[in-house]
Input
Amino acid sequence: MKSSSIALIHPAAEVRADIGDMLRNSGYQVYDAAELDRASPLLGECATAVVDVWAQAPEDVALGDYVRSRLLPGGCALALLETESAEAMARYSSEKFDDFANVECGAIVMLARLEAALRARMLYRAADLRRRDAEILFELSQTLSSSLDVSNILHEATRLAARAFEVDRCAIVLLDAERGDGLVVAASENREIRDLQIRIDAYPELQNLLATSAPVIIGDATCSPVVDGVRELLAEKNVGAELLFPIVNERQVIGALFLRAARPLDAVDERQTRCGMTIASTVAIAIRNARLFDSFRDHSQRVNLMRLQAEHRMRSLEHYEDFFEYAADGMLVLDATGCVQYLNREGVRVLGRDREEIKGRPLFEMLTEREVLYAMLGAIRAGQHCRNVDVVLVRPTGELRSLSVSASPLGDNQGLALLSLRDITELQEMQTELKTTKDFLENLIDSSVDGIMAADLRGRILLFNKGAERIIGYRASEVIGVIPIWRLYPKNVATEIMAALRSEGLGGVGRLAKLRSQIIAKSGEAIPVDLTASVIYEDGVEVATVGIFSDLRERLEIEHNLEAAQKKLIETEKQAAIAELAGAAAHELNQPLTSVVGYSEMLRRKVKDTDPLRRPIDIIYREAERMAEIVRKIGQITRYRTKPYGGKAMIVDLKHAAAAAPSRPTPAATAPPADTPITTPTTDSGTRRQADGKPELTPTAIECPPGRERP
Output
């Protein structure tokens, strides 16, 4: 209040000087004038006026009312008395001043009365504004509740908002932020203005409102940064201040309450902001109600029209009733709201209700999922057909039945829908059972240790189980529909297998008994397998082939190791038999050989060298010695070695069979006893030796045949 401006009006200069100095010393800004007419321009800049009680108002109104009407809003007028006489007090009372001050009362009393009057006037002003706001809101509420004309409601809202804020213009702008457009749907100064299109980018204040979703207060348009880009344009349109309040619906700004004043405004207080937001909220309610009402009215009109059209259409279709009545599928006719207008006998049986109970009732009440029927009706309105849509029906007994529904528009855009119903409960149960069986068989196939492959007649792989993945190395996704079946066999093997399948030689036509073959692994390795295959027929026509194969790598390795062990065992047995036979032969041949050597030696001693018999005797002796060497080799045999003899015949190779054996004396080659003389044929040098240089063998007494004396 100390910063308030005071207008001092009194004809006496000394009074103006004394009181003016006193007020200025107290912090007030004082404008003084001698006459009321001259002070009129000053009153518009002041919040308080101290006026001579005897001044005359130029109009036929009370002096206090006249002065207050020219002061700033909320200002007060004080009467300045020179004396508190009855006449002066009567004058003060009749002129409707807010208070009075006596020139003689002193500065302290005058300031106290002045500030008290200001406070009282401010309280009165606040109460008056609140009362006015309440009246405006009440009037707006009455307009909202008493009229369905949205244009009238919005215009009244703009008029009342302009009066509440004491501004020149008010408009309601609906905004479409996505398109960047706005529509001025109502204005306080012109009832005829509606749907005036504007661009949001031309109004920075609207852009600020959309960005903040909060009120935009521009008290002085000449200096506010919000309107920097359009300041000159606002000046041309005589806009000094702007107030914008958001119109919000479902937490989204859909418009603005747009107020403009020709003069700049003081700071907008909380009361004014609250009032503006209340009016904006009321406008939002009016707009929402108007939209709902229009939507409901349009919907009701459409429903009534479609119902009439449906009834007309039903009457035109009566001659088709027999056809529908005895159709194998349930047949229903629905109107635009989904209510049953007609159903045939099969439809009654499928739905499980009486005809009269169903007719006229919404079909979605009998289904577990209403959204499915809503979607079908929406598609039908768009001229589309719906085929084989599965829905679940609830019968009055609580039983659930699965239905397959097909629907199509009926007639020329009459809003009717023709539905055919088919009970597929048993079919779905069968499908479920088949799926369970299929899953079981697939699991069974995948669980097989053997590899299983199936392919169509073009060679495209259709089945590739886990066993095949493990053996070949490919994943099922890498071969099914990607790699032809013949790529998994060596060259031409797949063709040979198909030829075998179609022949009668290996299991009959269409079947292939176990066959040793090969599979090409992902790594390129040729894997030996046991393969069985068969042709799959449909109505006697070949459609696919299936093969089952087992990996033979481990089995073949075991067989190879077993065969090697068997060969080694046979070789060992042969060697043992040869060694035993050789020992037995050496032992049995040594006895007669000793006798032959001994008797030949005796003959050599008795027959002279010149005797013709000497040569045969020497040959006998030499060959006996040769046989003794052979017997020695036979006794040394440790392994089985053969050599060809006489064409394809094979005999034991004594040289190599006994080559690795250590030399050991044979019975025929052992030295005779010490008492047995050893003689050798006389040579040119006079030494008796065998023909090969070895000592001669002579029979011992033990080795001589009985009856024979030792020579």
DSSP finds 20 helices and 23 strands in the chain. The radius of gyration is 66 Å. Residues 180 and 200 are 5 Å apart (CA to CA). The first helix runs from residue 13 to 25.
